[in-house]
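Two proteins follow. First one:
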Amino acid sequence: MSLDVSADLLAKAETGDVTDAEFVECVRTSLPYAWEMISGVVTDLNTGDAVFADNVIPPPDEQARGQLLRALASDAIRGGLERHFGVKLAFQNCHRVAAFRPAAVDSDRYRAFISPVGQLRNQSPELRDC
């Protein structure tokens, strides 16, 4: 299981009565590395005028990498994080996470980041097996 779901939260989920805040809190406590990385990228975005901010530092170990992959590969988790932080997340390789302002989702910079060319330009031999 990718999230540490308490018995109380699971019982609420059985009735369909889970708030976004409860879900996001579960993500925060279950995937602390992913939470910290994404929080940091969002903080960087919010401290300037840029349309996006990103992380280029690989995770320190496989457990951290797994947390990041779980967070961004799950539509529910990714969507919850995007709603919580008010951003659009984009992901390349095993670690390059970007947060875009919602207004920038239709920008050339966003399209370049998520394009096949953008993905290929972000490759390197040391990232091949990440």
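Second one, unrelated to the first:
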Amino acid sequence: MAEHREPLWLGIATTAVPKDGQRRWRPGAHYRRIARAALSHGLRVCLFDPGRQAVWSRLSAYTPVDPARPDGDWQPAHVPFPDVIYENVYVHLAVKGYSAPLRAEARRRGVPLFNPMLPGKWQMISFLRRAGLDRFAPETESLTTSEHLWQALERWKTVYVKPSGGYGGMNVHRLELLPGDRVRVRADRRGGRVRTWERVLTRPQLASFVRSLRGRYLVQRGLRLLQVGGRKVDFRVVLHRDHRGQWQLVGIVPKLAAVDGVVTNIIAGGERWTLEQLEAAARREGKDVPVDQLVQAAQTIAEALSDRYKTVGLVGFDMAVEEGGHVRMIEMNPKPARSLLDRSMLEKLASCQAGFARYLARR
């Protein structure tokens, strides 16, 4: 473990800091929330860009001008390597290894860093199977050939083909078996574009579709998702560990796909509702939302993750309720978007993040 000094430093790794070293600056609201919450745990907070560090022993960072007033101005400072680190680099940069040198240095120094790199979609399915929790996952296979995909369509009638390492609903395709050995293929985001893409393919044309996919893809049974107002619904369930290392529910956010939409991601045409809105609309259609089951399933998976990955602190699960009432995990988001959360959820998130940082530093 790193040598503890007073005060203890919580370093937040982010690219959202000025590039020109300006003398006075105010970070985004959530970073200020974390810094406020950190005061009660005896932590000082600094923000730094992990890709712009020349010397790890003396970070170029931003800290509050007045440590007791983190809502005021912040200024450039050189700080020692933090006692605990919250790595909050954008997911597309993290995937490309932007934070890899920081992670390596933290390991070398024995400094806890959250969140660690977590399994991708396929690895997550394998993890659930090993943990005896595959009941929460839809039937999923690694996509190999067009014949394999055709067999999955014959078995399940509707399947989703998705990249193992994707995010934001990008290149997620829904395939539906039609009469006459035809397949309807639809995507909300494909090839970097945010617009509906749809084709009806013959069985021979399906081989060309499979060849067009780049990288590793999965084929997953199409879930019979709960529908409200004719729109499919899933639930973002966000959890974070607290100052005791225990998982706490930050919030549940229902997301509704566009009519005939493939995914519920907001960028792909989905819509965010409050849980109260969704429950009221579902009741008008004689449907129940099993909130307790959603939370229990998410917490069970999160606890299994933290047993394996000791510094995991934040997870966002996209959870599904099938029309028959079964609760499933569609996928796990290691960096769930804060934009889905309301103010009370954000306050709780910041409180948990500061508390969990203190928990890790104490250990």
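SUMMARY FIELD: Residues 140-221 form one domain. The chain is about 30% helix and 30% strand.
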